[in-house]
Each structure stands twice: as structure tokens, then as C-alpha cells.
Amino acid sequence: MGATFVGMPPFPEAARTALADTRLRRNLGHATATIRAKRAAVVAELDDWEDLRRQAAAVKDETLTHLDEHLLTLEAALTERGAIVHWARDAADACAVVAEVARAHGIDEVVKVKSMATQEIGLNEALAARGIAAWETDLAELIVQLGDDLPSHILVPAIHRGRSEIREIFRTRMAAAGRPAPDDLTDDPAALAGAARLHLREKFLAARMAVSGANFAVAETGTLVVVESEGNGRMCLTLPEVLVSVVGIEKVVPTYADLDLFLRLLPRSSTGERMNPYTSTWAGVTPGDGPQEVHVVLLDNGRTRALADEYARQVLRCIRCSACLNVCPVYERVGGHAYGSVYPGPIGAILNPLLKGVGSDPVTDSLPYASTLCGACGDVCPVAIDIPGILVHERVKVVDAHRGDRPKAEALAMRAAAWGLGEAGRMALGEKVSGLVGRLPRRRGMPGGRGALSWLPFPGSRWTGARDLPTPPVESFRAWWRRAGRDEEVRR
Amino acid sequence: MTVAVMATCLGDAMFPDAPRATVRLLRRLGVDVAVPDAQTCCGQPMVNTGYLDEAVPLVRTTVGAFEGYEAVVVPSGSCAGSVRHQHRLVAERSGDAALADGVARLAPRTYELSEFLVDVLGVTDVGATFTHRVTYHPTCHSLRMLRVGDRPLRLLREVRGIDLVDLPGAEECCGFGGTFAVKNADTSVAMGSDKARHVRETGAEVLVAGDASCLMHVGGLLSRQRAGVRTMHLAEVLASTAEHPAGER
Amino acid sequence: MSARDDVLAAVRAALGPERRPAVEVDRAYRGRDPLPAGAGVVDLFVERVEDYRATVTRCTAADLVDAVAQALGGAARVVVPDGLDLDVPGAVPDDALTATALDAVDAVVTRATLGIAETGTVVLDHGPGQGRRALSLVPDLHVCVVEAGQVVRGVTDAVARLDPVRPQTWVSGPSATSDIELDRVEGVHGPRRLHVVLVEG
What we know:
The structure holds three protein chains of three kinds. Helices cover about 50% and strands about 10% of the residues of chain B. Chain B is an alpha/beta fold. In chain C, about 20% of the residues lie in helices and about 25% in strands. Chain C has five helices and twelve strands. Chains in contact: A-B, A-C. Chain A: One of its GO terms (biological process) is lactate metabolic process.
């Protein structure tokens, strides 16, 4: 577990490095195109998709508006069914609860179901620091863990890796973690999955404690839901004696019946399937079946900070499907690591600032700007989060948080532009000056006849480094209108 | 009715062919056109970069300049989107109730060019002639903020002599994104390079779009690559006639 | 203050004293048919289960025992849950078998609670005839008997019928992963083969 997001540079710099990684570009381009096509095909099967999205958003909004009541209902239902409920203000609280459960049973090894909440709180590192090994059992998480790497996608954390890299990781790293990879391992995905099966089966059969997250937590009945594909989730949720589930407080839905929306929206949005291979539900302890000691940790860790923003709290509707990552043209090119967080892509660009707050960390402050505001993310979001709107909203918060600082160049430029454009006379004057520039002779023309500006000093070089800019027109539109346009005859 | 043309700051100062063509096109269709002197910039660059206070005077100027016109036509999806969807935020920020009222009056009367032609004037054949091989890029804000759909393509299909070819991956963003183009220049260029490649694959002479900003970005890349493809605003193609072909003054 | 008090206080502070009125949820979607027009429910169920590269055998009640034996394809040791009303060749009763013992059997035969045509899913709530969850998880072949009358149209109907307090496993095809270059591979940790025996008539 060597890798960490701590100390990564702000988005533009991290993106520059990622853009130069040819293998990353190829792997991501292929993977995102594949999953986009799958999603589009299964979404097109449902003619009431837009209605389902709206209703799911309404269920989540209703829940968030009365979150305290739903959490108390959930706590009572879980307790009634034999689960032990814990509350965690932050990552440290939550990690301490998990570690304490392990310690109480003398356990120094746990198996894990893929869970964004436990990634977010750095649970594996916290357990390692207490001498407890946490083994990831999702194939992609295993690839990331064995490779001392970081996840780069919510659903497919090793999306940045290709098959030959994965073969190398398994060949060189599996032995140190348990059963080694077979000697004749090829890079065929079926062979790689087979190696993971053998390696992890030992761990599943021996495990006494598992840690999971939950996709949904039903307040009324205390039912937790885990949606997965490989069966590693079922192994963890079924075989060990002790199960601890770390659940963000926004995962609650009021009633079991509400799941009829989410179980239709989530698989189609995430893996592009009508239904994921396995969905497990359980409510507390079932005598004679599965773990006989069940803990649930209800996690805040910034969620109430997001909740306090009345407009942006809709981010807490997120069901972690990753559809927004797969359609994002920025994510497709730079990958997940550039976002410096376990939540990458458009949702990460708003969720991280909302969970952590803006104004203190340059990486977090750079995230709302990691978007062209093209809007593709908002269109695919199954719970209709206005991601582009929140991106702008968070940009405003970032700017406002720095209004007391010594103004940086961008702020000065914005103020100057606002002044220059604030009144038509000032703007016309500026256009006269730029028109003079347009009269200067140019060595090269752009197609269509305008002169080309191919080099500008900083910060204009940010543009001209790769793009020509047309020379300013000799006559602005405003000047043309006054000179000739106002009285021009109709042209046919 | 008298229709006001919103030139947009970029159109006025850098790409006057687009608003000029908008004026000529509307007049040809029998519309009485006004160009309010007081207009400058809708404030979108400030809003989208997070500078709401700085956008307040620009929104005030815009609302004042276009007060009283029955319709405002904008040859830009993103500026029309800014008036319709973002000015409200700026007015709220200003705390000025009169400004908020002005914004509420302006927003529903503001149309992107293709919306005005198809929905208000009810035309798709605008009597244009343009004898070139053309591909069309639907800009993100016209597509996903305004939902103009295929209106621009319906207009282009009726142009005499045009050889209109589909752009692969048309609905993917070109990478301009306002200040994104300089704040995240590397990513912006990576996206634009793919868009430029798709444009070249079509064999088109002219790349057409409804936003001068996106054209400035993709056109700048195509020019740097010596790709031999020029860019032209949708208004220029629609204003083009046999007697006054686009591209000539 | 305890973490519980702190979190609840933070939630209440975030929401403020005056909350927006409850958002209205329109449940009209529950009345709509999720299936393509004219599709037969059972036929579509079969088609969509097969879409996941699971195997489906259709049989009558009279042929069921034979069909299950066929589906087992010579599996020597087959664990059977309590309350399974079928004769299964090579049956090993679930005598509180450990996970390791389950790992040494070849197959499992269960019944199901319902099937979902919209998604090609079978749902187990692990009652009699279905067994505790580990039974249908550890062995490599899962033969699942579904009665045609148990097949519902969509996810909405399924949720309406299921008991939220019982543990459930929703199974759509064999275990699968797409974690390597988005290439789908069937068979990771759950049963690598799923064989649905559909009983009609």
C-alpha cells in the first residue's frame, strides 16, 4: 500500500503528465468507448428512462430533506434485527470502529468488498498501521492493491491498466500476498480472472471478518444492499463470522419499495447491463445464515458539509454508478489519478470540494475547473444531478474563498475585462486599438484570409502553444454597423 | 417586429462576420433588425470562471441594452445559454430586485439563431446558396443547455449546392470550454486535436458551428496543422447567396 | 458529545430549522410495463437469462427430475438445501457444511423465490428449498429451478413481492467481471456456471 493521493499536484499539472502517457490514453479511450456504447444500448431499451431519473432524484431529495429522521429509523431497524450500529464523524472515527471490532476478535486479516466509502476514509492504511491486513477482493481492486497503485475509476478502478501490465503485476506480486500466480499465466482476461479466483479463494475460505460498504440502506427495514458482479461480494458478505459495513449517511432510502427505481437505474448506468450478476441484501443478523455478528458504521466525513449547501446538496443523490466518468471527454483523456482523489471525473470534481470544503487546498480548488462544462455528465446521471451547474457553483465558491487574498493574475484579468466590457464606449475603444493590430502585416494567413497569430507572450502562449489565433479584424462589428450596416440594403 | 441582434463580445471584437451575417440573413427574411449600441458582453466568461461579482455590471449592461425588444437573436449557443440560464444567478447575487426582474423579462425573449429561424420564423429553407463541402459541429451549450437538437442541420440541409457530411463523434466537446482553454490548455488541446482529426476525416473544406468560440479553438488547431480546412459560423453559411457568397465582403 | 449526537446535530444544522416541503414522488412508473410490446413474459425471461450466457432448460413438471439430472451433467457430489422437494443424484444434504467442505462439492440445486423477465434475473430469499446463502455461492455449478408461474415482468414487480427482512441474492447469469479492458469474462468467484431449469405447465 505504498501509493497515496496526498501530495499530488493540482489538476492541470497532473493532467499534463497523464496526457503524455500513451498506454493510459489507449487503455482509457478503449474502455470508456466500450462502456459508453453498452450503457447507451440498455438505456435505450427503457422508454421511461427520463421519468425514472426524475423520480429517483425526487426520492433522494425527499430523503435528504428529512435525513435525521431516516437515520434514526435505520438505526432502530438495524438494532432490532441484531446489528450493532456505530456513528462516525470522520475517517478517523470510522477506521477506529473497524479496527476495534477486529481487535476484539483477535483478527489480524480481513477481506474487503469493493467500497468507495472505505477507500475515501483510507481504511486499508489505517488498519495496516494497527497491524491488520486488509485484502481487496474485487478483481480491479486486487490489481490496484498488488500493484501499489491508486484506483482511477469508481467502477473499474484498474481501468488505466492493460492486460499485459496486469499479467506482470500478478506474476511478480501475487506470491507475496498469498497463493502465487500460475507459472504459465497468459494475458488472456479469462486466465487472469482464473488466477485471481484461485488466489482469493484461499482468503475467502479462511476469512473470519469482512468489511463492506453498501449501495443502499433501507431505513424502514434495516436492509443493506450490495450490488456487484464477480461474487467476491457474496463471499465476503456470507462466509466470515463478522461483517462490518461502512455506510455513508447519504445511502439511506426510506423504504424497501424505493429500490425498484434504483435497481433499474444503477446497473444500466454503471456496467451497461440490464442487471448486474449479483445483488445481495441483508437486514441485521439471519440466524444460521451468514455472519452472526453484524456491524454498521454510519459515516459523515463531510457529507453534512455538502448537505448544508441547499443547492449543491443534490450531489448526495449520487449512487456511484460512474456513468459521468465514462462520458466525460476530460476524464477520457487524463484518467482518474489526475483528480487526486478516490472520486475522479465530473462527480469527483464536485463531490471532493463539497465534502472537503474549498479555499484551503490547491488540489481541491482546481477540481471544479477540470471541466469544459460540456454537460454530457449531467445528461447521463441516473439521479439527474445538475453536475455542470454545480461545477459553476463550486467555482464561485473557490473564487469567493480567495477574495481576501492578494489577487492573482486571473482575478486581475477578470476585473480588467469586466471593466473594459462594462460599457460600450470602453469596449469600442479597445476594438479600435485591436483593429490597429489587425492592420499590421502578417507573414501567414489562416484559411479564409485572416492573418494568423502563432506566437503570443505568456499568458497568451497558453493559447498559441498549439493553436493559431486570427489577427483582430480591422473593423469591429460595432464599427461596421455604424459605418454601413445600419443602412445597408437587403442582400438577396 | 423589431429584432435585436446580440453580437456577443467575441463576435463584435474578433469574429464580426458572424453577427454581420446574422443581420443580413434576418433582413433577407423580412425581419426589422436593430443592433443596440449599449451592448457589450453577457458576462459568461466571468460566471463560468466563478467571478460572479465581476459579472454583475455586464449583466446590468446587457439587460439594459436589450430592454424593450420583442426578441433578441444571438449567433451563439453559449451566450444565449448564459442569458437564459445564468443571468438569474448573477442577479440573485447582486441583490438588486430590479435587475432580477429585467433578467426574468430578457431570458424568455432570447433565442439562439437556429431556434429563432426554425421556431419563431418557422423556416428551414432560408434561401441560401453555398457550394462547398461542409461538416457541422454541434456545440455543447446549444446541444445540452439550449437543446436546439437538429435545428441547425435542418437549416443546412436546405442550403443550395451544399455538400453536407456527417462529423464523426459530432456530439463530443471540442475542448474549448471558455477559460478551460487556457487554465487546462493541455487537456483542451488534446480534446481539440481529436475533434480536428474527425473534421479532417470528413474531407470537408469548411467546418461550421453556431459558436465562434469553439470555431476559434478548433480552427486555430486546424490552421496550425495546415489542414486546409476553414471555419465558418452557421450564420455565414445561411446568409450566403449566389450573388453574395460567404467569405467575401 | 458522542459521534452519534455530533452527526445528528450536524445533519440538523445543515438542514436548518425550516425545511423545504417534502418532494413529491410520482409513482406512475409502477403501472407501466417494462417489457417490449407483445413479449411473452416467460419467453423473454428465457431469452434474457441466456443473454448472460447462462444455460436454460425448459421442461414440464413430469420431466423435472430428469432435467435437473441432465443439468448436473454427471456432477458427483451435489449439495441440496433443506426442504428441497426433488430427487437429486449424488445429493449431499447441508449438514452445516463448512465453507471448505462446500468448496469440495461439485454443484448445488436450489429452487428460487421468483424470476424477473425484464432483466433475466432469478432471486433467492434462502428459504426452504433454497438453502443458506453459502450453498448457492461456493460450488462451481448452480442449478436453479424456477416455476413459470414465479416469473414476474419487471424489477418493480419483484421488489413489490419480496420480503425485505429475509436475506436475498439476485442472480443474473454466472459470476462475471469486466475489469480487464472491459472484456467480459464469465466465472470469477461465484458459480462459474448457472443452469436455470424452467418448469412449465
